[in-house]
């Protein structure tokens, strides 16, 4: 049995998977704020799998954690997890001794990419595009995450696609994230709500010009990211996940329509059939928690042997 | 001994490498036009290694060919090599029996990427950006070409970076190639010359406004491709090759200056140190021929064992 946690800004999702990678138990809880509370959330989350989901904790062999921050390569040290109030935290040291099993840590988008790959059948090349507060991708081929040289792989949100576009929080102009980041859209929309992007879509449907522009920008940004991912790494499929994808088909229809526009203009783009290669992560899929569990398993020498 | 050929639109470069990958012989010849003449060029090229470079042809164990066209996956069938007058040609069938050794074929940019990786020391992750008539990249990690799902990997030339940019030959607007493709630049410059881009640079130095705009566009396009490659696959280094790089440091200085502008605007981009990660392929390096030789070697079961 392997445990994976997706430690989000407000809630933490915990899953246990069996030796075949099938989810055997799943719980959710609120995420604490700051290093100590995050550590406690993880320990409590694993224990809750026993208490609430009937998982035999003595059978757990590894714990993987997906977390919204940078991970120092080759370590379990999280830095700059600003949404969790964590500046620096060595999770292996903090939770390993309490849990008594090896602990592995991965950036949450990369964990979700691995989980989405497994949920999708685990074959070929996939790009997972996370549409949350920011925009970032994870690339998986043959079950392995593409890590790149220095941790910038998948940072497609900061590719500029319009020199006259809006200024991005990173300082450049016209970044994909400046069009499609949930944080930017909420800020520009300027009204509170549980999911501001949904309000933007509703207002756009009702004819609000500002909302129509924001909604169009979102679709343009996502379509640009899909094109970047296919024209660079030639992913079989680009799976969209993250908070904004709660909009479901309303989002997908817009994105497919943008992709259709470039296909109409270009026989080359048409030949890539991008509209058929973009998909939504099924609603409610615990992709990041599943991916985190797989990361824990991948580092176990016995497991690595068993899976060749 | 392995032989590799870089079959270009006007000339063909042929190299022989020894078991350590060191170049033991090198010849150049004119490329014929059409399938029969291309076949003859390859056969003559290999024989010229014996006659002109003193290579023992009996010791040649494989021939690899880099060619400017699409290669059908898993085959030696070249399609749409328009610059060679070849619509379709199975090179293994055409030249294999005459040469008596296995023949492997690869797209020339991908072959050059492998060769550039070997010339660069053969470690880490590299993107090779080819600046010729068109713009395309090859991505190499741990000595392996990233192939992607359906042959579109590295087609960064057709990523649009400006919705109001010039119309690309592919039909989209503002593609990287519409700014940085040698074909497009020559067409817009509209005056004949051996290397129109050099004339553009000279005219820009002399203050010609049209030339200054074309030159600026080239640097913008190349810088955009470098950003795409680092922000997607996080290559350690982006090596620039292809005909336009005959401009050498005049080109590199412009590109580094464009990269510097985005670094100035963005702490995030600054942290990537892109100016330090972009390099020119050394002038005269037979990267594509060397890469083609390595591709021939990689498919030999004995060699694969020897190299682990």
Automatic annotation (TrEMBL), chains A, B:
Belongs to the ROK (NagC/XylR) family. It comes from Microbacterium immunditiarum. This is Putative NBD/HSP70 family sugar kinase. It holds the Pfam family ROK. Keywords: Kinase, Transferase. InterPro entries: ATPase_NBD, ROK. Coiled coil: none annotated. The keyword Signal does not apply. GO terms for molecular function: kinase activity.
């Amino acid at each position: 049995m392997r445990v994976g946690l997706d430690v989000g800004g407000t809630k933490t999702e915990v899953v246990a998977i069996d030796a075949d990678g099938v989810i055997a138990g799943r719980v959710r809880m609120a995420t604490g704020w700051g290093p100590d509370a995050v550590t406690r959330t993880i320990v409590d989350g694993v224990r809750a799998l026993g208490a609430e989901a009937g998982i035999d904790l003595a059978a757990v062999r590894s714990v993987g954690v997906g977390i919204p921050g940078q991970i120092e390569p080759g370590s379990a040290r999280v830095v700059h997890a600003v949404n969790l109030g964590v500046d620096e935290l060595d999770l292996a040291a903090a939770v390993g001794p309490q849990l008594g099993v090896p602990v592995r840590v991965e950036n949450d988008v990369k964990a979700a990419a691995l989980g989405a790959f497994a949920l999708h059948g685990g074959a070929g090349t996939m790009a997972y595009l996370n549409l949350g507060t920011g925009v970032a991708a994870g690339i998986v081929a043959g079950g392995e995450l593409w890590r790149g040289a220095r941790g910038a792989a998948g940072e497609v949100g900061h590719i500029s696609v319009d020199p006259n576009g809006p200024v991005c929080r990173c300082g450049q102009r016209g970044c994909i994230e400046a069009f499609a980041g949930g944080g930017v859209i909420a800020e520009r929309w300027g009204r509170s709500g549980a999911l501001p992007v949904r309000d933007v879509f509703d207002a756009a449907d009702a004819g609000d010009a500002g909302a129509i522009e924001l909604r169009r920008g979102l679709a343009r940004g996502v379509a640009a990211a899909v094109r970047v991912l296919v024209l660079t790494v030639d992913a079989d499929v680009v799976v969209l996940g993250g908070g904004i994808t709660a909009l479901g088909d309303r989002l997908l229809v817009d994105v497919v329509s943008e992709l259709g526009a470039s296909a109409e203009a270009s026989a080359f783009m048409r030949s890539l059939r991008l509209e058929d290669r973009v998909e939504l992560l099924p609603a409610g899929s615990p992709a990041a928690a599943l991916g985190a569990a797989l990361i824990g398993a991948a580092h176990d020498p016995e497991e690595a042997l068993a899976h060749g």
